[in-house]
Design a protein that fits this description.
The chain has about 210 residues and is of the alpha/beta class. It has a single domain, classed as P-loop containing nucleotide triphosphate hydrolases (Rossmann fold). Helices cover about 55% and strands about 15% of the residues. It contains eight helices and five strands; from the N terminus they run βαβααβααβααβα. A five-stranded parallel beta sheet has the order 2-3-1-4-5, with helices on both faces. The radius of gyration is 16 Å and the shape is globular. Bound molecules: thymidine-5'-phosphate (TMP).
């Protein structure tokens, strides 16, 4: 069946773990499921991701960052998202267009109308059926994210966003909650600071009505 689910949240909100758990759940029910992510998601997208995440790229301007993200999305929608949905799969994407509104719009201060226009163009109007916003306090998320980075030596270089100050992440969290309030039917806020099993159960409860 064709279903497009996105996950959003600040760093360390638990998206990666919960996406894997949701995949197991829907596959157990017999559905075909594919996981993808942004930035990244396809060969060219992964090259763009490397530029975006590299903590050595301190001089990347907010405008360059925005257009790299949009170039990634244009490629990813055409190469991965549209084909997966056309093939009647359940597609779970780790971050999508809401992330740009939260990070580049509210947190970096780029014009929201420019972001909306670019999003509309590069997604060709493809929108998630359901968005799970894993919400948690910034201290909780950053502690998890930095712990993970310390454990995986290689991800130190991937820390351009994690390296931002606490108030940046607070703006991202507040932005996500504002975006969710504006579209309550699509975006469901899940308290990601609770234990993983409780979060997993709530996400299943939100996804099950979409499964035939
Ligand atoms: P993640 O893969 O650990 O979720 O990290 C991806 C980072 O990219 C995260 O810090 C948020 C950032 N990002 C944006 O700033 N704008 C976007 O549109 C997307 C998709 C991600």
């Amino acid at each position: 069946m064709r279903l497009f689910i996105t996950f959003e949240g600040i760093e360390g909100s638990g998206k990666t773990t919960q996406i894997q758990l949701l995949r197991s759940h829907v596959e157990q029910k017999g559905y075909r499921c594919q996981i993808t992510r942004e930035p990244g998601g396809c060969r060219i997208g992964n090259k763009i991701r490397d530029i975006l995440m590299d903590s050595d790229n301190e001089t990347l301007t907010p405008m360059s960052e925005l257009y790299l993200i949009m170039a990634n999305r244009a490629q990813h929608v055409t190469e991965v998202i549209e084909p997966a949905l056309k093939a009647q799969k359940i597609l779970i994407c780790d971050r999508f267009h809401d992330a740009t509104i939260a990070y580049q719009g509210f947190a970096r201060g780029m014009a929201l109308d420019l972001i909306e226009t670019l999003n509309q163009t590069v997604t060709k109007g493809v929108k998630p059926d359901l968005t799970i916003l894993l919400d948690c306090p910034v201290e909780v998320g950053l502690k998890r994210a930095r712990g993970r980075m310390a454990a995986e030596d290689s991800s130190w270089k991937e820390g351009r966003f994690e390296g931002e100050r606490g108030d940046f992440h607070q703006r991202v969290r507040d932005a996500y909650l504002t975006i969710a309030k504006a579209e309550p039917d699509r975006i469901k806020v899940v308290d990601g600071s609770r234990d993983g099993h409780t979060v997993e159960r709530e996400i299943r409860r939100l996804v099950n009505p979409f499964l035939k």
